Automatic annotation (TrEMBL):
<dbReference type="InterPro" id="IPR001611">
    <property type="entry name" value="Leu-rich_rpt"/>
</dbReference>
<dbReference type="InterPro" id="IPR051071">
    <property type="entry name" value="LRR-bact_E3_ubiq_ligases"/>
</dbReference>
<dbReference type="Pfam" id="PF12799">
    <property type="entry name" value="LRR_4"/>
</dbReference>
<keyword id="KW-0433">Leucine-rich repeat</keyword>
<dbReference type="InterPro" id="IPR032675">
    <property type="entry name" value="LRR_dom_sf"/>
</dbReference>
<dbReference type="InterPro" id="IPR025875">
    <property type="entry name" value="Leu-rich_rpt_4"/>
</dbReference>
<keyword id="KW-0677">Repeat</keyword>
<protein>
    <recommendedName>
        <fullName>Leucine-rich repeat domain-containing protein</fullName>
    </recommendedName>
</protein>
Amino acid sequence: MNIVQEEIQSIIDENNIAQEQFSEFLQDKNNMISELHIEDRLHGELDLSILQDNGFKNVTSIIFEEGELISISNIPDNLEKLVCPYNLLTELTELPTSLNYLDIQGNYLSELDTLSLPNLTYLNINENKITTLDPLPQKLESLFANNAQLQSLDFQDVKNIKTIHVSSNPISVIRNMPDSVDDFVAEYNSSIRFENSVVPGENSKTQDREQENTPKISFNEALTIYYKMKGTYEQERKSQIKKIYKKYEDKAEARLKINEYKHPCVKCGNDVETKFFTKDTILKATCGNESSPCSLNIELDTGGYTHLQRELIELKDAVEDGKKNFIILKLDSLFGYNTDEDTKHQYNQRLNEYNFFSELYESALQENKKIYDNDERSLSLQTKQELFAEKVSTIRGMTNEYNQTNNNEYLQLISDMYIKELKPLANEIQQLRYEDSEVEIIDRSPNVPGTAKGKFMEYIENILHQYPASIDSIDSFARKQEKVMVFDI
């Protein structure tokens, strides 16, 4: 039983009061009301048939706040909007077909029956465990599914969707994305393959904002211009500094003039310099005038890959920190530093954080196992090693026959088997054991005047490095896409 299941069982056993809370909430409400907004935190199981029983037949919108709801049943058939974020729902079934707005972020659902939601236009399943949304509702316009477990998306027949946020998912393929999308965010995913899709610019917020802030230039073009501009600027600046140094016989005065020199900005031409610098993965270039800079502004995100081993260490630390936070929270509650309500609120927040990092850590462990302890590769390696041993035994047998008979046909058979079967098999075994290999050449030749390095082989040392996994597979756990953020020159 995991932490969530333990928490749910604890609520069922000790604090299953949601029905009473909701009944009390309805007591002073007009049964002709269309929207119910329950601001109190509810705890436990809730049966909404109480609405029908008490004459609330016009309710089309129900909004719950963060709490400890563990189930919702008998949802009204005419309900159009349901909001229930950051509770403890593990399933949500028999949703009405009339529903057009569903926000269940921060729960623990592993599946959602989208086939029964033909009128849905807004769906928020952030921070759930849902692995598939198939088929997507045809009327869907906004999809928020960050930090979920989605593996693929297919927008077949979904023609009017405008917003798609699917960061931090193991998505490998997106199919049939329409050109209606103008707000697409998919950060911190594995590399996504788009099939039969109109791919919008990643991380764009709206099409208008994209047109305003994002230039019509590819990343490679912008990067080439950036480094060419930087190289030309630094070369010209260095040339001017040399001229200043030669101009003054007094070198102390020359150094003073060099320190005072400001090379012209590449755009405005004023003697204020241009600042080229790097911050994290962002290449930047701006005017050096701090009080009134010109419009020069370049920001290029070079993206990158997260190293799997580093990711494992960081995620493990995050999981361990989460466990420590639970202990601290319990101690604070035990010694009366926090109220019960504050403790429960903080517990839910920390529980969500803990589960989020635990799932990422588990995913990284599985990826690590796939790379370093792959069952399929191990089985293939074992099979080929056994076959290799058989062929070596056969060659030894033919060698013995040759030694006894001096029949040259055995030599031909041995040679053919070695070239055509044994050597290729050895290469396959090597590839299965070590995906990447490289030789490091170290020249330890003494520095003798007039003698070129590397001339004497006795001083050359070759070191073989072998890696069980390719560098690409180790570094490609999560990719951040490169992009042009600002390019005003």
